[in-house]
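#struct-help
A.M.: can someone run this one for me? Single chain, 106 residues.
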Amino acid sequence: YGASGTTGSEASVAAAIARATVDVQRLAEQAGLGSRAQAPSLQAACQHWLAHRLSKQEQCSDWGLRPLSERQMRYAATDASACLRLLAAMRADWGGAAGVPLDEGL
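D.P.: on it. C-alpha coordinates below:
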Protein backbone atom coordinates (compact mmCIF):
# COMPACT_ATOMS: atom_id res chain seq x y z
CA TYR A 1 0.00 0.00 0.00
CA GLY A 2 1.25 3.43 -0.83
CA ALA A 3 0.84 5.78 2.09
CA SER A 4 1.30 9.04 0.21
CA GLY A 5 -1.57 11.42 0.78
CA THR A 6 -2.92 9.53 3.78
CA THR A 7 -2.98 10.49 7.42
CA GLY A 8 -0.98 8.52 9.95
CA SER A 9 -4.06 6.63 11.12
CA GLU A 10 -5.08 5.76 7.54
CA ALA A 11 -1.58 4.45 6.86
CA SER A 12 -1.73 2.39 10.07
CA VAL A 13 -5.05 0.86 9.04
CA ALA A 14 -3.71 0.08 5.55
CA ALA A 15 -0.61 -1.55 7.04
CA ALA A 16 -2.72 -3.65 9.44
CA ILE A 17 -4.92 -4.84 6.59
CA ALA A 18 -1.86 -5.74 4.52
CA ARG A 19 -0.43 -7.82 7.40
CA ALA A 20 -3.75 -9.64 7.91
CA THR A 21 -4.26 -10.44 4.21
CA VAL A 22 -3.63 -13.94 2.90
CA ASP A 23 -3.42 -14.44 -0.85
CA VAL A 24 -5.13 -17.81 -1.38
CA GLN A 25 -4.37 -17.68 -5.11
CA ARG A 26 -0.67 -17.50 -4.33
CA LEU A 27 -0.98 -20.37 -1.84
CA ALA A 28 -2.76 -22.46 -4.48
CA GLU A 29 0.00 -21.63 -6.93
CA GLN A 30 2.66 -22.69 -4.41
CA ALA A 31 0.74 -25.96 -3.97
CA GLY A 32 1.18 -26.68 -7.67
CA LEU A 33 -2.12 -25.54 -9.17
CA GLY A 34 -2.05 -23.44 -12.31
CA SER A 35 0.81 -23.30 -14.77
CA ARG A 36 3.94 -21.25 -15.32
CA ALA A 37 2.03 -18.93 -17.61
CA GLN A 38 -1.16 -18.60 -15.60
CA ALA A 39 -2.04 -18.45 -11.91
CA PRO A 40 -4.73 -20.87 -10.74
CA SER A 41 -8.31 -19.67 -10.93
CA LEU A 42 -10.63 -19.52 -7.95
CA GLN A 43 -12.77 -22.10 -9.74
CA ALA A 44 -9.83 -24.53 -10.06
CA ALA A 45 -8.84 -24.07 -6.41
CA CYS A 46 -12.43 -24.69 -5.26
CA GLN A 47 -12.58 -27.83 -7.38
CA HIS A 48 -9.30 -29.07 -5.90
CA TRP A 49 -9.79 -28.33 -2.17
CA LEU A 50 -13.56 -28.18 -1.79
CA ALA A 51 -14.56 -30.70 -4.49
CA HIS A 52 -17.07 -28.10 -5.63
CA ARG A 53 -17.38 -26.47 -9.05
CA LEU A 54 -17.82 -22.75 -8.56
CA SER A 55 -20.31 -21.34 -11.05
CA LYS A 56 -18.99 -18.35 -12.99
CA GLN A 57 -22.21 -17.86 -14.96
CA GLU A 58 -22.88 -14.35 -13.63
CA GLN A 59 -19.28 -13.16 -14.05
CA CYS A 60 -19.97 -11.54 -17.42
CA SER A 61 -23.38 -10.12 -16.56
CA ASP A 62 -23.92 -6.34 -16.53
CA TRP A 63 -22.57 -5.28 -13.12
CA GLY A 64 -23.13 -1.61 -13.92
CA LEU A 65 -26.90 -2.08 -14.07
CA ARG A 66 -28.68 -1.23 -10.80
CA PRO A 67 -30.18 -2.71 -8.83
CA LEU A 68 -28.12 -5.89 -9.02
CA SER A 69 -30.16 -9.01 -9.60
CA GLU A 70 -30.56 -11.59 -6.86
CA ARG A 71 -28.40 -13.97 -8.93
CA GLN A 72 -25.62 -11.37 -9.14
CA MET A 73 -25.71 -10.74 -5.39
CA ARG A 74 -25.65 -14.49 -4.69
CA TYR A 75 -22.72 -14.87 -7.11
CA ALA A 76 -20.77 -12.05 -5.43
CA ALA A 77 -21.38 -13.45 -1.95
CA THR A 78 -20.41 -16.97 -3.03
CA ASP A 79 -17.28 -15.72 -4.79
CA ALA A 80 -16.19 -13.77 -1.71
CA SER A 81 -16.94 -16.54 0.79
CA ALA A 82 -15.15 -19.11 -1.37
CA CYS A 83 -11.79 -17.60 -0.39
CA LEU A 84 -12.58 -18.06 3.30
CA ARG A 85 -13.69 -21.66 2.74
CA LEU A 86 -10.58 -22.31 0.66
CA LEU A 87 -8.29 -20.97 3.36
CA ALA A 88 -9.96 -23.20 5.96
CA ALA A 89 -9.57 -26.22 3.67
CA MET A 90 -5.92 -25.37 3.00
CA ARG A 91 -5.25 -25.05 6.73
CA ALA A 92 -6.89 -28.44 7.34
CA ASP A 93 -4.94 -29.93 4.45
CA TRP A 94 -1.45 -28.65 5.34
CA GLY A 95 -1.25 -25.98 7.96
CA GLY A 96 -3.37 -27.19 10.84
CA ALA A 97 -1.39 -30.18 12.05
CA ALA A 98 2.03 -28.64 11.56
CA GLY A 99 1.09 -25.34 13.13
CA VAL A 100 2.90 -23.47 10.36
CA PRO A 101 1.24 -20.19 9.31
CA LEU A 102 0.11 -20.60 5.72
CA ASP A 103 1.07 -17.06 4.83
CA GLU A 104 4.57 -17.35 6.27
CA GLY A 105 6.30 -17.04 2.91
CA LEU A 106 4.01 -14.40 1.43
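A.M.: thanks! The mean pLDDT is 83.
D.P.: also worth noting: Helices lie at 8-20, 24-30, 42-50, 70-98.
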